[in-house]
Amino acid sequence: MTLVGYFNSLRELGGSRRIVEDEVASRVADYSRQKRQNEAQGSFADRDIAREVSELASRESTNKVADTKRRLALAFTDKEHVDVALATNMISVGLDITRLGLMVVLGQPKAAAEYIQATSRVGRDAAKPGLVVTLLNVHRPRDRSHFERYEAFHSAFYRSVEATSVTPFTPRALDRALPAIVVSLGRHLEKTMTPARAAVGAADQRAALGRIADVLVDRARAHRSMEGPEEQRLEAIVRARVGDLLDSWAKVAQRQKTTGARLAYQPHEHGSDGPHLLYDPLDPELARLDPDARKFRIPRSLRDVEPSVNLWVKTLEGVDIELPAEGEGP
User: Fold this and answer.
1) Segments of the chain scoring below 70 in pLDDT
2) Closest to 277 (Cα-Cα) out of 211, 190, 202
3) At a CB cut-off of 8 Å and minimum separation 6, what does 90 contact?
4) 95-116, pLDDT tens digit by residue?
5) What domains sit in the chain, N to C, each tagged with a CATH number?
6) For residue 103, what is the DSSP state?
């Protein structure tokens, strides 16, 4: 089994590398000599591991890191297999090797998201469970705190994931978040529009929904400390964007109202199976909708905001470079 070591700094990784190359390699080579009292033969077999430790860290060249990833995917019976790989947060993403099943984490990472991402590199196959051993330092307050509430933290560590920083009311933040906020506020501020299939009410409540712009403008002022022309510019942008969304919502609702349909907010919400207002950003049905209806794309996860794209790699001479298929190499 390959051991993956995770470290918070290159200094700690370097010190542990020397220990693996010297003490660990020597001890496991003579492990059978360790016997219990009155035991004629040891319970363990000797183990010969490579003294050249592989690294997945920024101080290694790109080619060497790619070769290490290739070797990590090899079966343990292969002569090029890796016995011990020491890594930093480079492996938090992009290392998807299902055969890895053992990791040692030296010290609690600074971020909960980093801890979750790094430790999820092992045991990725349901048929091959993984083991993560966390070694905490008693002299570090952060490590001691996690040790004292170890079970509670691991039973719900996703609630400790840090929020991603986003500058409020920037153009791209408005693109992605404003439709959901406008619809949510409209549904909460007007009681007649609260039911699951009451989105069609925007056709009659367009004037009343105008106060949503006032709420968001007040919020923008609280978030962005600006004065004079900058404040007026932000206020104008927010009012224009909110007004455009409300106008489009009213148009969509009016078209559904003329057909007698009850416009739902979400598909299959409380048994509604008719037309709905909100769509996932990558929903293929969006291509068949009119421009007003396409504005109501509601992200349920930041992973679903942007579509996938193809990438073609060429040399400087314009010659295509053939990349290995998924699972065939680094």
Assistant:
1) 164-166, 224-226, 269-273, 301-308, 323-330
2) 202
3) 56, 57, 58, 65
4) 888 888 899 999 998 888 889 9
5) 3-160 (3.40.50.300), 171-302 (no CATH)
6) E
